[in-house]
Design brief:
The chain contains 14 helices and 14 strands. The protein is of the alpha/beta class.
């Protein structure tokens, strides 16, 4: 990074901070530094110059125009530079401000508490990169009902499997079944491009039947080779509107010769159920028949305490938004720990989703979470790849 190429604006209502930050920046070798004591003056500066500052050191709590309003004004100007928040506000306020700026697609390099240290400031500025030339974003293709129906009928839908491992031993205890569409022209298509279409056009039961049939057949193969794995399949709430679905699940498992205990049904309630009676009967009877039930993405949408109260779940999956980076965030750590403690008190297994790196893995292990899942462990894979992956994972874990 060439310090002389970065122009930096200090926006703070305290003249003392102008001097302090200006001195720090000069000592770090930055030459192009300007300062404003209010948002209006900063916007006038940005509007009057041909080149906006590459980086703004922003205080949040200022009179007249606070830092959050200033961010909104930057969005109106299509600001393409970066921000560092330097404020006396508490950690949760700074994190909320970061989240807001990021939601507006403004790059936030991080935040520092006043008084900022030269080392902390240098570390965040070290993350700065020139903005990429804006390119038109490719919009995801959404498929229509006829195309999804054809995919189901033509056998184009395939199951991938993402491993779930026991944190205390590293033992592979199960897999989550994740649907993929091998489109003859478009290649691999992910569920967010067609699941909602299937739900909206009455195709979700047919689609779920394909997923369940494939997962059960694969579970039988693993069982015959001595590989005992819990095989999880995601259900749509639209699967739970008719009691016929109960018979479908039970019948498919019986025909495949797979014990109910090997199958786990994951439920994510993304909307409120108008009538709980049929879903409650289906899930409770499946639980009576020894199928395992998991509440997915716990803490988001409507997957919450009411569902734990009403439905007989065996497993609670802590949503990835509360897992990744929790080791560095007091707020995320508190949410993770409360979910974990709730699972323990209810006698449920807890699964940490979104374990993306070594830090996440260390955190969930030390926290005592039962099971982990995420890219640090493995990405979803075809069933044929799983045995070799298990061998390589066991070697990695034993190191």
């Amino acid at each position: 990074m060439n310090q002389h190429t970065i122009s930096i604006l200090i926006l703070d209502d305290e003249s003392f901070m102008h001097k302090l930050l200006g001195r720090m920046l000069a000592n770090l070798g930055f030459a192009s530094i300007s300062a404003c004591d209010n948002g209006h003056a900063a916007l006038e500066l940005i509007d009057s110059t041909s080149d906006s500052p590459n980086l703004i050191l922003l205080d949040l709590n200022m009179p007249e125009m606070d830092g959050l309003e200033f961010v909104r004004r930057l969005v109106e100007r299509c600001y393409s530079g970066s921000l560092i928040l330097i404020s006396g506000e508490d950690e949760r306020m700074q994190q909320a401000a970061e989240k807001l700026a990021s939601a507006h697609k403004i790059t936030v390099l991080g935040h520092l508490h006043k008084p900022a240290s030269p080392e902390g400031l240098a570390a965040l500025i070290g993350k700065w990169m020139p903005p990429r030339q804006s390119e038109p974003r490719a919009t995801k293709k959404i498929y229509d009902a006829d195309e999804v129906r054809a995919a189901i009928n033509n056998g184009e839908l395939v199951n991938y499997y993402q491993p779930k491992v026991e944190t205390s031993t590293g033992r592979v205890v199960g897999v989550e079944t994740l649907l993929r569409w091998r489109h003859p022209q478009d290649g691999m298509v992910f569920p967010d491009q067609f699941i909602y279409v299937a739900e909206a056009h009455g195709l979700i039961d047919d689609l779920t039947r394909v997923v369940l049939t494939g997962a059960l057949a694969q579970a039988r193969v693993w069982l015959e080779t001595g590989l005992m794995l819990q095989v999880a399949v995601n259900l749509s709430m639209d699967n739970l509107v008719s009691l016929d679905f109960l018979d479908l699940v039970v019948g498919l498992a019986a025909r495949a010769g797979v014990p109910a205990q090997m199958m786990e049904l994951e439920v994510t309630e993304t909307r409120l159920m108008e009538d709980l009676r049929i879903p409650l009967e289906i899930l409770t009877r499946l639980r009576l028949k020894r199928f395992r039930l998991s509440i997915d993405d716990f803490g988001t949408g409507n997957s919450s305490l009411a569902q734990l109260r009403d439905l007989p779940f065996d497993e609670l999956k802590i949503d990835q938004s509360f897992v990744h980076g929790a080791c560095e965030s007091d707020k995320l750590r508190a949410m993770f720990n409360s979910s974990l403690e709730l699972a323990k008190q209810l006698g449920m297994k807890a699964v940490a989703e979104g374990v993306e790196d070594q830090a996440d893995w260390n955190f969930v292990r030390q926290a005592g979470c039962d099971i982990a899942q995420g890219y640090f462990i493995a990405r979803p894979m075809p069933s044929a790849d799983l045995p070799d992956w298990i061998q390589s994972w066991q070697k990695k874990f034993s190191l």
